Structure formats: C-alpha cells, structure tokens
Amino acid sequence: MFWTGELIARSAPIRRRVTAERSPLAERAVAAYVGLAIGDALGATVEFMTPKEIRTHYGVHENITGGGWLRLKPGQVTDDTTMALALGESILAAGRVDALAAADAFDAWMRAKPVDIGNTVRRNLVSFRSSRNPEAPLSEHDAGNGAAMRLLPVALACYGQARDDVIAASRAQAHVTHHNPLSDAACETLIFMIQDFLAGRDALTVEREHAAALVAAFPVFAWDRKHSENPSGYVVETVQAVFQSLFATECFEDCLIDIVNRGGDADTTGAIAGMLAGARYGLDGIPRRWLRSLDELTRVRCEKQAEALIALSGRAA
Ligand code: MG
Ligand code: MG
Questions:
Q1: 206: CA distance to ligand 1 center in Å?
Q2: Which ligand is nearest to the CA of 234?
Q3: Of 263, 109, 249, whose CA–CA distance to 173 is shortest?
Q4: 144 — phi, psi (to 5°)?
Q5: In angstroms, what is the span from residue 69 Cα to ligand 2's centroid?
Q6: Whose atoms come closest to the Cα of 83: which ligand?
Q7: Right CATH for 23-312 from 1.10.4080.10, 3.40.50.970, 3.40.50.1820, 3.10.450.50
Q8: Ligand in nearest proximity to the CA of 266
Q9: E strands of 74-185, at which residues?
Q10: Residue 172 C-alpha to ligand 1 middle, in angstroms?
Q11: For the chain: N or C, fewer Cβ within 10 A?
C-alpha cells in the first residue's frame, strides 16, 4: 500500500517563492518569457519532424535535450527567443517600441550570425540595410509566423496601455519583416491574450474575447478541436495549433508536450504556446526540470528583461 502523504508530496506542484522585489505581475511576465525560451528549446529538437518520426525516435518528446537539425546544445534556443531578446533590448534602450530601433536591433542580430533565420526575416532585413526604411512593403506572401514568434516584449512593454497604442506598437515591430494583414491580426490577438493572462483572466474568457474575435474577423483562422499535425510556418496553421494545445490542456507541461509532439515548426509553435502558457499558469506551473535544462545565460536574460519591460509599462501607464 502506498503512503498517501508521499504520493501527494511527489505530485504537488513545485512552489516557488515570490521574491520580495518581484510583484505577482512581474512574476507572470517572467514565466511568459521563460516559457517562450523553454518552448523554443524543447521544440527545436523536433523541428521539421513528423509526429510519426518523433514517436519512433523519442516515444513522447518531453525533455530539453538539444540536437535536431540545428545540432543544438541541450538548453540552447533559436531565433524565436534571440530575436525577442534583441527586440526587448531595443525597447528598453528607446524607452518605447520604436520601429527603427527594432530594425537596427534585428539587423545587428542578423550580423551576429544566429543559429537560424527565416527567409522573410532575412530578405526584409537585407532590404532595410540599404533603404533604412523599417517598414517592409505590404505583401500577401509574408504571412509567416516570424513576427508572432518574437512579439512578447511588446506585450510586456505595452501592458496596461490603450488598445490603439498596443496595436500601433505591435505593427511597428512586426512590419520590420512581416507586413501582412494575417500576421498583424495574429500578432495583435496573441498580445492581447498574453496581457489578459498576465492580468489573471481565465482561459474561457480569453478564448471568447480574443481567439473567437480573431476568427470572426478572419475566418481562415477557424480551428477545430482535432489534433492537427505538422503545423507549418504559415501564421494561420501556427496559431491554430497553438489554440488547440492551449485550450485543450490544463497545465503548462501538458500544453508544451502536446504542441511540440505535433512536429512541423515545433520550435515556433512551442515558443508561442510557451509564452501564452507561462502567462496563464505562472512560474509555479513550469516544470523545474525544464527550468534547470534551459541555457542559464538565456534564462537569466529572459528573467531580467521581463522584469525591466514590465517596469517600463508601469512607468508609461
Ligand atoms: Mg527557430
Ligand atoms: Mg521554427
């Protein structure tokens, strides 16, 4: 017979002390940022694999082990996290979301030879180098998820701001590389969802007010409850898979395992699901083994930047 106390102790969520200097809001912001990095690091191992290939190699992929087509070190992140960090630094330096500052930050990031880079990002940053225009031309083809994967610093810096200001900030960062109405709609929806989770709103309300509103405005985003496989880099497929995982699970770990085992653009679906689930469940909900596995320098950068961006939002409000 099992000793019930031991079972409870084993299955109890890991409690994390809220540090004296960190408010509950800052704590959730940190969880969103670390969640982004964890989803990226976890998903990158299985990026471009099919669910069947993942099952053959890993059974269920549930640990941060590196490898994958990028041959990553365990805990290493990719462009999803490093572009977000570059954007966040530009926001902190300028004191606001500024398109030119963001474009310069992305350009510097590209010059530093990142481990991976999307085609749309590369093409429009190369154009920016000669034009110095931080707004890429409107393009119906640039509906990839590259602007959505890095938007978290905007959600944090603009927390509590007026809706129109949040939308303008979202477009300023997104249009540096992705100037497309579907990308815009996805980015704005994701930012409002993150902000509502940071405010402690429940998933049903967030789904009704934001995910459903996105579908009403752009029916192409309609998602069903079926488990989709191999979500591509097309922002519509990415967002559909993220919604399926986020709204069908009830903890951070289940959400992230569900999304990355779908394969496809798994680092980016993992990153976006991770920021939403981090904001939803907070630091207590993130498995300690994932926090320990994440590259430490990256984890500390994410934590410090999340705190600074939330502090900036408080000064702007
Ligand atoms: Mg990536
Ligand atoms: Mg990717």
A1: 26
A2: 2
A3: 109
A4: -80, 175
A5: 11
A6: 1
A7: 1.10.4080.10
A8: 2
A9: none
A10: 21
A11: N
